[in-house]
Queue: 4 jobs
Job 1
Amino acid sequence: THTTDIHIKFKMWIAKNHIVLFLLFVLQADGQKQISIPYIEALPNIPNSWKIIDFEAKAEGLYEWLYINKTSRGVTSFFNVTFESPWYNGTVVSLPSYIGQTQVCSVAPGESLAVSGTAYGASLLARKQLQHVHSWTRLHQNQMPNFSFVKIYASEDGVIWNNPPGKLPPQIPTFWYSLINHIFVLSTLKSNNLDPKHELLYKSVLSWVKADKALNGNYNHTGFDFSSMKAIDNGLWTESDAAGGVAWLALAALDAGIGTDSEKLSFKTLAENSLNFLQSQQNSPLYECVLPWGVLAGAKWNYKYGKTYNITKFLEWSLSDGKNNQYRKGWGMINAQWGGLDSTGLVGSITDGGGYAFIGNGIWAAAALAPVIRYEPQLARIIAKWLYNLVSSTRFFYGDQPEVTGKQSNPKDKWDYNNNIAYEGVRKCDYNRTYSKCVHGSQFGPFATGDWCESVDCDNITWNCHNAGPCYAGSNRVLYSGGALGALAAVFSTTNDSHILQLDTVVTDVFAEEENSVFGYFNPKSSDAWVEAKTHYCKNREYYNIIDYTTNMVLRHNVGCNTLVSVFVEANSVTLIRLQQI
């Protein structure tokens, strides 16, 4: 893309019914000399399967079904259980990882990926909607549970696990199962102001400071045992991208302003040790899902402290073809057609059965990488292009979408009768590991499925629950990852142009300062366009200034929160504007 010297202009276009529409002609993010990453660049500008469904409505339906309309479910999907822990005593909303896995949750709280991950998604959706004075959140926010119960996953020393400490099933002591739940739990508490003094964050980061010293800043291990203060190595793989999650944790503590002066220095050392480790790697350390949070931490560190970590390299590792991964070969970002449809931008295995993407990995990566645009605007277009593809392809995880009609494993799921719960995965075809082939051929896709059952129509198959005997009929529809849908819905909004999305680069960066809100507009088309922006940012102030993010010039003073703004976006480019609260 080219760089053009554009004079900044604005003018009032129309005033009607107290809603004012302004035209803003701003310098494109391409003026920052956008960086190209070949594998991401190879994604289609507009996928041949392009379609955006209302993920916000699906997320609303999911959280209303789980938390509010408790009498209309038919079959109970969750249980309220009483639980005591070092950080929380009381009632816990226990959610199953897979819908139908109800007996597990009637005994003890479900895994944090389901419980805290769903609370995380609901919190981010509410965070977006409260900023926009959204009627659904205003109507239901007082009926949502108090998400303080996510603290049950923290040990006394503040380390957060996938299962409540000391309870069955036993902990999975690998890095990613712990660190992704640190992000879920701490972000949920921050979004809802449930730990205003950041006590859990404080204890947690102190524990990781000690762990980093024990590891000597070397994360080439499978996990860490906090009881023995020694690394865990299973001899099969390492999860070296854990350093990215630790860096995110350290930055969260610094953003929160907690700790004594000496402790703050130790938090900075923790961030630098972990980011230095990532920088020193020759091949991608990506294992499951933590590395994108390292991209965010590195970008924020560069922005705030003037460092020069190679964020382009970190991003390229996060969304690659997986060929150069240190251990998990073939794990990365999908750029392929399945059943003749572009199934691009999804995240998972590129090699398992020809391709196997997972709903959670895409959502979690979107939540981590959208804020990078604000800190590294030269990566705005390439990140936006990937998000554009991801948002379109994510609809294949939902059973009511015509592209997966007849190509899914639980078509008549009796729990998810509104099709608001995502399938765990989408495959290239109905590949069955037992037979090592696509049962109905390689073009029978995209195929919505999961790890529990790999056949077409699994609705009448009984499965066994952990320590609980036979369950009801199982399901490949999941909360452990699909419950976070609100995070994806929070990141993007549609505009009056069906091909241009608005990206919120702050909503998932919960420890950032909200007054620095930056919105991006990606135009994938070959022609320039004007787009109406939905930047009604009314959470804390009634008025704000609109600023061109690339030049820091004020485009409009004292704009009311009911203002519509029309923004010019060049072809194949991103425009960034900043809202400054007054």
Job 2
Amino acid sequence: MRNLLLAGVAGVAFAADPRDLQRAKTKVPRAAWKGSDFESMSQVLNGHMQKMFPKTKPCSEWTAKELQDYQETLYAHRHSDFDSIYSSTSDSRRFRHNSMAEHRQHWARANKHVEKHPHLRDMHRDGHCHEAVMWLVHHVPAPEQQTVFAQIPAPLLSTKRHVYDPVSMGKHQEIVNLYKTQITCAECHSGTGMLFQDWNDIPGIIPEDPKHPGWARQRRCDQNYEPACGPCDGIGGPYWGDQVDHFQPTNCEVVALPKDVPEADRGSPQFAEQFIVHQLGSDRLIRTQNAAKFAVYSQIRSTLWYDFSAEEDGMAKLRHDTFYDDLGYRWLDNGLVSEIHTQTKEQRAANITGPMVSMLHGLLGWGKDMGGLTCLADPVGVPVLGGKVTVKGVEHSAFLEGADYLGRIKIGVEYDGFKLGDKGHGDMKAKRNMTVDHYIKWFLHMYVDADPASPTYRQPVRFYGPYSGFAVYVKFDKTAPPVEVWDHVCPDNGWGEKESKPIHPCKGKKITDYPAMIVEKAHPEVCDFLTNKTVQDARGPIGDHIRGNFGSFFAPETRSQAIVV
């Protein structure tokens, strides 16, 4: 049958349907095609497979050899335009080898190894089921899906995710690595892909304003936009509202397109495992993907301490100290808000994100219910900014791994001349032209210094999200944060501000010295280290969790007496 099918398409080229091409360019599956984890993802996609193809067979009823023959048939019916799209952005849907001969050669080695180690047979077969379904859906045009492949059995996905300990992995590295590349559908179709709050308006495209031509695409351009973002799209700038003209555009000049910059010459959009960053920028005190009816902004100064040497001592730690400099906040201890995220290796392995401790400094010491010190159990975890970590036996990559490279540009970077220790917030209109590499991931943009003569060469220098915060890194130190950062209320954050808490000063005090409100969620035990606590229910009417991108806090019912917005 396979040879007959191959003969039937020999020398024939089909024009790709524009709808298929659009789907190939779209990186983000819709909600109906996603699951919360690997098992539910496989069940959801199997449901779609059974609707699309009348003859399906469970993965367990196939052998790896049968699946490889089936994949050779799929390969013969592929449309090259799809793989060109996937390969241009390092999309996980791309073919891993350049020809069927290379695939067959790789499979032959794997088959030989599995014959000697039959306990690997199920993992080997299940990986091919996932890869075969991906090829069928993402490489074969719809007309051939509905004719050729509707007449023959199609495999379903295995719902089991195979996990091997490091010892076993070392003995069977090639098979395990093959399996990992075959199940990359989980990156987008399970809970690890790009998530949305508003499924009714996934793109959130800002309409063009004739009064400000071109500003809309500079204010926002996401990874899944069509047409795709160019080197100078989505670069944004400091902002103070959701409207298209409520931001300060910056100058941008294309230096080189992606095809003209070899990968080896590009700066990596990843951070060190340990660092201290001082930044100027803007924050938005509501975390939504799109424009909101009510959003409060402030210009900010912030210090980030990060320590994620996860595979050494296992503890991941992140702290923000952020000064909200707008007048509505400065009266409350200079607008200082701190946020500390920690996560042990054991919590991470079990997918428990750990505690988030929020401190609204102007309210510290005024009682448990004022919201000065709050511990949120199991909110968001610590982002992976470099390397990889393992969660429930599954390896997860750094946040910016898989980002698209948009090219090399010369851009006006804001706050030129500002040095740590200077008074004020800096001048957002003062710009220094810098040559940077532009990366995009989801709706987030990162800019890495690409000038070999620059003291910050190959370091991230600027970050932008249309509603997710804007920052220019005025000082970046690749060093381990001081130990007191993680348990003291007021460590030296480098900005030289004197605290404005004459009644309840915080210098030298530990977080555990203060009464805390615990906002209970799935794992309240992660806040047990705070002994002076009162437990509340996050679903109750006690207040709101006000979320910024460089800091957040819990505001109780009494917030109108304590917080000006």
Job 3
Amino acid sequence: YHTSRRHCGCLRPVEVEEFVFLIRHSGHTMLSSGRMFGQWILATISITGTAAEQNDDVRWKFLHAAPPHYTTLKLTKNESIVVDGRLDDLAWSAPGVEWTTAMVDITRHNYTPFNLIPDSLQARAKLRWDANFLYIGVELREPFITFNVTGHNGADVPYKDNDFETFIDVSGTTQYYKEFEMSAGNATYDVLWGVPDGEGLACAPNASDDDTSDPALPICVNTSSHFYDGNWTMANVATWGLGGGGLTAATSYSPQDFNTFVSPYAVWTAEIAFPFRSNGGTRQRGWHGGLLDAGPPYANHAFENADPTTNTQTYWHIDLSRAEHPRRYTSTNPTPVVEFCPLGCSSNLSGTVPDMNPPTSAECAAVKAEWPTLLGTDPWSCYWEWAIADVGPNAYMHRPLYWATLQFAEPDQSGASDLTCGQMEGPSRYISRLILLAERVHKAQTGAYTASFPQLLDTCAKTDGCDADDLTYALDTKDRFTTLALDLPQKGSCGLTGCFRATVAMTIDGFDFVTTVDSNSKVETTYGESSTVQRPCLFTTQQNSLTPGTDLKE
């Protein structure tokens, strides 16, 4: 299972940095779905200066490396969403409710065309919220709509069919994030992950409901799916739908598009309502979990400080993705020819049905040779993963430090639709991520973490995805980054025999805060002022938000 710049004289220095950010994240890149990567048409604009050459008034924000930002607006008293998969509620077309940008390849590649997804396979989403739910409406292009997996947390996972996936870290700690998958047939699957999967981190085995122990480590994984331990789910299996207060999801597509190849693509849509909170502390029938759920060692086993209904300036970290498998088609016009789609499909496949048996390892290897971004050639990794926020040098979605930022906002009484306020701790989270990456590589190479920044910078400079220039800049810019420190504590502080803990302290417009990261990937930010005080915005312009891409319906 896969849980496996040239010259522009029209902008001031501040605008240049923000314009670079806009170009990277706006979704207005033009693509045509040519057969080979080299045939894709890419509209680009080049701007004077690398990040290292930007004005110091802006450079400390590291906007060139900032994750995408999306502002989700609360439903007004006159708005509602009926979860039927159709996206026809007026709430989805209200002012300020924008589509996410075009998806990119899961991994940030040095060869730019590898990052790009053809128009015919794009997906986009909108997000709203109210007192009880986070709503996601999604629209996916797909040449062949079909499904075999059924039910919720059933015998198989929706990923086995082509699916849509959501990853949500409500606390920003990387701990107790939620994974959700769904197929065009509305098969669903959800998991509560105590620590990022696949990193070999320290965590506690899942405890039974009768175990009242409070270990220092988070529970590794909790789900009612038989693939892992536990019994957690956001679904109220006794009373499905919004009336039961739990997870609600629905899909929609044209019946004539089902189980037949459509050139260049068909469209299926989905709506999901994720409950914020669980409805109690027991796992009896009728119980459901929520996005704010946590576990040991967190008080009340919940992230109460991340509740957007009771806390101002709430930010979550989120990624939306889709898994797409190569399918074996046989064209009979004019003679039988076997093709593997969906990339590079020929129009003469219209009306045909593929062989739904998984490709062999040899076939996957042949597909990967032509389309190198296929994740692997074994049965579990023979698929593509595309997301709104790439996960850097990784090829695995379970990397919360790379996900997009989700800002919760309420519509302004003045009618203003642009309420974007960039998360203040973005730069400290970014530097923490660089330190974590470099420390991991240093330990892999030497057998130990380091408390030496010169050693760490040397490792960072040789590591894919680690920017030693940015890390050096943070070390040298004391008026913004007041403290950068590395510590190698004894066992007990991170649950491991060998540990490191990094501290990144910043000051912005008189606001002091500290972000820490440790060898167990735990990230925490603490503030020197009350949580009710309005904190500065890293950026405020709509251009720095995830803005609409091309209209999929045109």
Job 4
Amino acid sequence: MGSYWSSFYSTEKGATTPTDTETNRRGKRANDTDLDTDNLEDPLLYTPQKKKLKSTTDYIYQVLFVNGENSDITITALGKEWKLHKIYLKQCGYFDSMFNGSWREAEASSISLDIPDDNIDVEALSIAFGCLYRDDFTIEPVKVVPVLAAACLLQLDGLMQQCAVIMMDTISMNTVCEYYECSVTYGLTLVTAACFKWFENNIMYKQTKILLKHISSQLLQQLIESPDLFVMQVEMDVYNLLKRWLFLQLVPGWSGSYRKELTKQADAHFKEAVRQEFGRGSSRSYLETKCGRKYKCVFATLRLQHILVDLTSTNTLLKDRLLPKEWLMPYFKAQWMTMLRVEQGEELGPKKEEVEESIFNHQSLRCARVLNRDTEHQWRWIGFNYGVDLVVTYTGRTIILKRNSSSHNRLLSTQSRRYVMFKVTVSCLNDLGQVTYTKTSGVVTTDFEKDGQVLALSVDRKATMPLRVALNLLYITPKLSDSLPNLLNIRLPHTHCGSCRRRRKSVTAIASTSCTDVDSSQCDVTGRADSPAAPSPSSVGSSEGAASTGDVDSDL
């Protein structure tokens, strides 16, 4: 290119043209190149060239489905008609059995479908019918539930699988409740499991009014029981979550501030309900009221043994009077017996051969924290752990557990060796709340000497911030004699409604009166009829507002 422009420029200035010898020399080289090229085969001649013409499926879809040409059957549903073809409809299990059986519709030229599912609309039916005429189709996530419902009605397994893939890719705070309910209804087990995993990772971290309003008591009970629930920060926060959820179930139209007003409004609502049903000064709890009894199963899944190890949390439970105090007494007894065994050297902690993994999952303390920066972090969670002060350190992409033997105003065990069972899990989430990275140590049993430490988990470099760190911990060996009580089987004292109280004349008289003396239609009796009157409430010295369980210990 450069020599060409040089020659052109010289000619313009009047320079002499190249000599014949130079021309012949260059021409010879050019002719040589042409000869060489003629002897080579062009590789492009053997490279397939793909040119997409109008596809057959597009033609079939437009002519047969959209235009309805040569239709041999008319389907009517939801006020709309579709001109379709039996040969294509037989791809559906619904129509295949209809046309091949001894049904009246087998020879009919028009069929009216009854649509019993409210999730199905006209657009969803059109998409379901249309997919019978083409290989590829597009479904917007906002329409995936109606299309799934239509696919289930027509027994289109392929379309159901495509809906399941779309749902699993778009699970988020705005869709998870609807997806979970629909996946259970239509039998999409993989979507159900994916939604449940989303709840485990996000329900404690992304609490909103809309989310809590739409979670059923059965689903919430399963989440509270799950050992993989991401508890942010400690078990007391699970109780606070349940309290907010219960209030929103009872007062779904409440529109105040979730963070600033909800807890205060919930406490006032529960106490007023107890006062109205049992009278002012009653020591009964909200779960003993007529409205509260149906929620006992959910609150019975709380791991109270890990809530009652903190004074502020214990005072809050007693002050709220949401749970029956009869539920708390078995835990107080079990914990006192455990403290005596630790003090007398009979309890050194759980050993692997003594505690099965299922028991660990059911009884372990769950606690978690989110690390926003990839720098060194060190923390502990609040609560008395029977003399073991476990400090967690994140440094250099590793998580280290250390048994701290310095006092720091804590009651520490003087035993030289203590056993602890733990499981460390780290995870990262995307903007939708879906897991992009996770790693776990599995259930590990280790013995800690004083100031001893163990490398619990190494975090891969591909893990991004923020990093979620969750621990399951078990500090003591569960004993059969101190096994956790079945709270639903605990008998509660007999309580009387307002009609009963008006009929009693004295405390002595009501104690000797049988239930047959009272109109049973006006008094909803719980527990034994001959149970004694409830004792007077004990005085609890607690502050007006409980300290946030999310605060980490400031000693570090």
